[in-house]
Amino acid sequence: MRPHVVLLPVLLSASGCIKQMLIDGQIEGTRQGSVAFDRFGDFEAGEMAAASAVLQFEGMLELSPGNEDALFLLTKGYTGFAYAFIEDRMETADDAGDRAGAEYHRKRAKTAYQHAIRYGLQLLGQEADGFEEAKKTPETLKAWVTRSFTDPEDAADLFWTGYAWVSHANLSRDDAEVIANLYIGVALVERSVELDPTYNAHSAEIVLGAYHARTATAELDQAQVLFDKVLAATGRKFLLAQTLYATSYFCAKSDPAGYDKLLREVLAAEDPDPTQRLSNMVAQRRAARWLGEKRMFDACSMDPVAPPEPAPATN
Question: From CA 264, how far away is CA 262, in angstroms rounded?
């Protein structure tokens, strides 16, 4: 047999491997460079970019099925897009009395969170199998996540998957099955905190704080401890902490003074952390809405606090 005939299949195989390596390298580079998105300072352009990004990530996964970086980008991308932009449109429509528009965007956000959960579970499943069996009870799930995820680098995968799960439940309070399974998302976020509480500016502790303040009869003391810890650790520069502290804990406590003080602190902040510029912009937009009478009356059952009087002019 001629040598070049023998070599042909080998060369073709090597060519395919090289192509796959290039694709995987591009996806890895995209994940590494995606942190620049957090520094973006234009909300409207950020919304368009986020929508385009998740479509790009879908294409990446199509080219490289099972690629961990692509799965991570999709989990984070869908979760961030839903919370930062779709929920923003949902709340804006609701405040304007547009019930149909609010419901439309609520369904969009829930769908995005469902996509994130699906990709997140696929990502976690590549690290450890057995989720379906483990999720049957809170105890078996807790044992599974503790046994299966031991590396601090696992905190990111656990956080974004759990965050999507909790956020989806927050928009599905009329769905008994979803609420009954809320413990799954909570367990994933709790394990993320155990592995690396500092990940993404202590975001997992913020999510847990909001969870523990989900109602007036929930674990408000635990919520307060978590939020105060995050504020100290971040130097009050990650404004989503103050916003969620106000709209969960102080809302649940019906404490208008504490609520008003924190949200006004958020609105008064001027680019406290350029590495979290987009998140802080999202926090400020949400803070402005939740200072409105509709949200204070309807969501928190509180009377709005009168804005502070301006300081007298001095000569």
Answer: 5
Domain ranges of the chain: 49-196, 198-307
State how far the Cα of 84 lies from the Cα of 72, in Å rounded to an integer: 18
- Say which CATH superfamily domain 49-196 falls into: TRAP transporter T-component (1.25.40.920)
Q: Where are the alpha helices (DSSP H) in the chain?
A: 3-33, 43-63, 68-81, 87-95, 99-127, 131-134, 138-148, 154-170, 176-180, 182-195, 199-212, 220-234, 239-244, 251-252, 256-268, 277-290, 293-298
Whole-angstrom distance, CA of residue 75 vs CA of residue 77? 6
Rounded to an integer, what distance in angstroms lies between the CA atom of residue 62 and that of residue 58?
6
Task: Give the contacts of 103 (CB within 8 A, at least 6 positions apart).
Answer: none
Per-residue pLDDT of the chain (315 residues; tens, 9 = 90+): 455 555 655 555 555 576 676 677 788 877 787 777 788 888 999 999 999 999 999 999 999 999 999 999 999 999 999 999 999 999 999 999 999 999 999 999 999 999 999 999 999 999 999 999 999 999 999 999 999 999 999 999 999 999 999 999 999 999 999 999 999 999 999 999 999 999 999 999 999 999 999 999 999 999 999 999 999 999 999 999 999 999 999 999 999 999 999 999 999 999 999 999 999 999 999 999 999 988 998 889 887 665 555 555 554
Distance CA 106, CA 73 (A): 22
* Contact predicate 241/227, CB 8 Å: yes
Q: What is the CA radius of gyration of the chain?
A: 22
What pTM was estimated for this model as a whole?
0.89
